[in-house]
Amino acid sequence: MENYYTLLGIEDDAGVQDIKRAFREEAKRIHPDIVGSGSSDAMRKLLTAYEVLSNHERRYEYDRAYRRFVKAGGFNYRDFLRENPDDPASRAKLVFFDLLHLEEDEALAAWRDQGGLEFRMQDYLEREDWMDCTYILAEELEKRECYYEAFMLFAALIREERRQPYFRHFSIEVENSLKELVRLRLKSAVDSETYLECLEILLDLGFPHKEEARWMRSMAETLMRLGRRTGAEAVFREALKRDPALPNAAQLRRKLNI
Q1: CATH number for the 1-54 domain, one of 3.90.800.10, 3.40.50.10300, 3.90.850.10, 1.10.287.110?
Q2: Among 12, 5, 7, which Cα is nearest to 42's?
Q3: Is this model's pTM higher than 0.70 or not?
Q4: What is the CA radius of gyration of the chain?
């Protein structure tokens, strides 16, 4: 099994230029346009490794998680975990181990087999390991266009970070991942009721008022499409309290006579 460094063929102290050079060389060798579609999975893993290691903050988080979680020893740790399919603690550790070794298909299969979002990995992993694992898992789900599941995991991370900081300097990137997911992908991927549920979760996480106002505007627009005018009006008035200069609000103002 490979980690991000061995996949790129570099040492764990490699500099940015070494990472870029290794990526270019390996990409030329395995790119689907060159060797055919059979290399798509290998190319996806290579891109994941490069995206993480070429970003200082994400590389720091990966290194920290890998050093802390991956066990050293003279036995096959993955086989040991797989021998305990009925033990949720072993399943949780297997998900994290496989994610750190670019075995995303296996990690997702194990996670879904345990119930997906219903699987409380935080009950079986140390808090730091659970947060690192959840972030990597959320990113992988987003790449696979599983936007609702990714949203729920990002939200859980931010809620826990608000309760007791762990990511600290990296938390901004986690928040940005959630906000970009909502802004660009989530609305078209879920039904209106689920979208409203997600917006309500966002509003409970404690973001700045101007950001909350934009989400409340989207909530009001969705309620209007569902024919729930009274609810839309109440939400939109709250949005204007948070940001009286709320952009792109004129049309909704006219519809609601506000």
Answers
A1: 1.10.287.110
A2: 7
A3: yes
A4: 21
